[in-house]
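From the shared-data thread, chain only:
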Amino acid sequence: GLDPHSICADAQDGELDGLWTTISIFITLFLLSVCYSATVTLFKVKWILSSVVELKQSITPNYRNMIGQGA
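Structure, as tokens:
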């Protein structure tokens, strides 16, 4: 029943459970934020790359036309 040793052990188990809960919540939030920032970065990179490609495509024909007219 009220053996002091078992009461201490129960308290320690409770603390460990609380600690694990805190750690798992922290890890979950950390992973979520990492995934979120990675996704945002990917979208930014895709957007930058696509705008760069569009710029190259719009510049290249004009450049060729200028060379053609000059020749």
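The two ends are 102 Å apart (CA to CA).
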